Amino acid sequence: MSVPSQNRPEAWELVASEAGPDLLVARARFDHLRNPRTGEVLRRVVLDTRDWVNVVAFDDDGRLVVVRQYRFGTARITTEIPGGVVDPGEEPFEAARRELREETGHTSEDWSLLGVVEPNPAFHDNRCWHYLARGARRTHELELDPGEDIVVDLLGPEAVREGLASGEINHSLVVSALSRVLDLRTV
Amino acid sequence: MSVPSQNRPEAWELVASEAGPDLLVARARFDHLRNPRTGEVLRRVVLDTRDWVNVVAFDDDGRLVVVRQYRFGTARITTEIPGGVVDPGEEPFEAARRELREETGHTSEDWSLLGVVEPNPAFHDNRCWHYLARGARRTHELELDPGEDIVVDLLGPEAVREGLASGEINHSLVVSALSRVLDLRTV
Predict the structure, then answer these.
(1) Is this model's pTM higher than 0.90 or not?
(2) Which residues 2-61 of chain A have a CB within 8 Å of chain B?
(3) Given its phi and psi angles, is residue B39 left (phi above 0), alpha (psi -120 to 50 degrees) or beta?
């Protein structure tokens, strides 16, 4: 989409930047930015965050490979598609194959990129890569890291719809990935 | 979706919790949690974050009301639907009406809730409420806060699809909200 210049605001001038604390999932910094509308300088947080990937994986029977895990932010057990952080020096596609294998023991020979989103451009600088893996099969044992305790399940199309409708599946990045593959309209 | 207990992992025991820094958009804390699989205690960040709202608003001609703004996380001008933070003591629906009016000058008499997602349950504790406003009209001047410089635009259905396909519209919470109203499948 090409946006005519009169329909775009201006970029903000970066006046200064302070290092902030290590947040384990990101490194904070505070940027001092000049609002072109008012001339005022504001201090805003930016979380330097590695790129993420997640994987919509279907088995040969059309069942979605999901992971259930206790999530520390919401203190709740979620149902999600597999995914994680792209390691330093790793390509997003490698990370997607690795996360599918480590978190679910599944592998696939039929991969495609579904799209790339910004998880929250207001304060994260990273992207999340959505991949599709067709014909996924359980070929490996799970390789969970010390911060994980995951149960794998396979959901048929009706269970996926029911999970989305009930809010059992409600991680925004999971919804974003699934919207490339399933019609999620409710109105 | 009701999940049989053998398909669910256990909750993690909260062993301790330390206060962390104020990040402007959230307050960090560090929880010490015991992994039920290994017995080990891990330190994990949680960002205490107010709930967010965003609004899929269509005018009487079926055009989507969008906002363009410079985003500090990605240092890029984005195209998004209006939205923001639910103020203390405010209901999500009030916040949605307020954000639509303040950021775009539009109001509507025809509102519905599209759904609620967790932006990132791995480390945020909040939810994002997606609303639909039909028949939105420009009735007010913009009321931008000092941290905002917003340009409003109206996109027809083709421009919305083009924006999603090109990545011009790629905020995951915007995609999640739009997936309730538009078929976003690409495969």
Answers:
(1) yes
(2) 3, 7-12, 14, 20-21, 23-25, 28, 30-31, 33, 35-38, 40, 42-47
(3) left
